[in-house]
Every structure is written in C-alpha cells, then in structure tokens.
Amino acid sequence: MQSENRILEDLARLAGGAISSFSTLKDEAEARLHEKLEKILERMDLVRRDEFEAVKEMAIKARTENAELAETIKTLQEKSERPQPSNGTTAAKPRKPRKNSTLKGKSSTN
After folding, report:
1. Angstrom distance (rounded) from CA 62 to CA 13
2. pLDDT tens-digit profile of 19-69?
3. CA separation, residue 81 to residues 58, 62, 72, 86, 89 (Å)
4. Nearest-10 Cα torsion for 18, 24, 28, 30
5. 89-92 long-range contacts, Cβ below 8 Å, gap at least 24?
6. Whole-number Å distance between alpha carbons of 18 and 47
C-alpha cells in the first residue's frame, strides 16, 4: 500500500515538474515570439501611435484654417467685384510732390 502511495507521489512530482517545464517553455516561446514581432515591426518602419495622433491633429487644424481662409478670400472677392456706391464725390487724386518751396526771384539771404 505504501509502495503504491509512493509511486503516486512520484508520478505527481513528475507531472508537476513537467507542468513547470511546460510553463517555462511557454514563457520562453512567448519571449522569442515577442522579439521576432518587434524586429518585423521595426523593419516595416511603422509610425508610433502618439506620432500619428499628433500629425492627425495638425492635419485637422490645417484643414480648418484652410476652410476659414477660403471663406475670407471668397468674401473679399465678392466685395471687390461689387460696384462701389457713388455718393457724388470723386476720389481724391494723389498729390504731386512740390519741386521747390522757395519763391522765385527772392533770395534766401536778406
């Protein structure tokens, strides 16, 4: 009876050792797979998520500003194409620069 218990205990230890060996083997396989995947991803030259989000925000901001500028341009073009209302006044002509401020015939030394 005791020899049967001893055999069962030995089998239980053997099974426990096998299970711990398999868990170690599993951990080792996961670590190697993780390393391989990292190397593959590095070769693919992928963008990290935080960099992608930053560029995405910049693109959204640029599109918004572009739309606002397009509206401003459209408004300015419409204003420039409209005839200006005339209220009876003419636009002032630009002044010509004066040639000489001294009077002719008078000398500056008196």
Report:
1. 67
2. 878 888 888 999 999 999 989 988 998 889 999 999 999 999 999 999 999
3. 34, 28, 14, 15, 20
4. 100
5. none
6. 42
Q: What pLDDT is stored for residue 17 in this prediction? A: 82
Residue count (the chain): 110
Measure Cα distances from 26 to 32, 33, 38, 75, 79 in Å. Answer: 10, 10, 18, 68, 74
Contacts with 55 (C-beta within 8 Å, 6 or more apart), sequence order: 47
Closest CA to 21 of 33, 29, 9, 10: 29
**How far is the C-alpha of 62 from the C-alpha of 10, rounded, in Å?**
72
Report how far residue 31's alpha carbon sits from residue 39's, in angstroms, rounded to the nearest whole number: 13
Would you list the domain boundaries of the chain? 8-45, 47-81
- Tokens encoding 51: 């960099």
Token pair recorded at residue 42: 């590095």
Instruction: Enter the tokens of residue 19.
Output: 């299970």
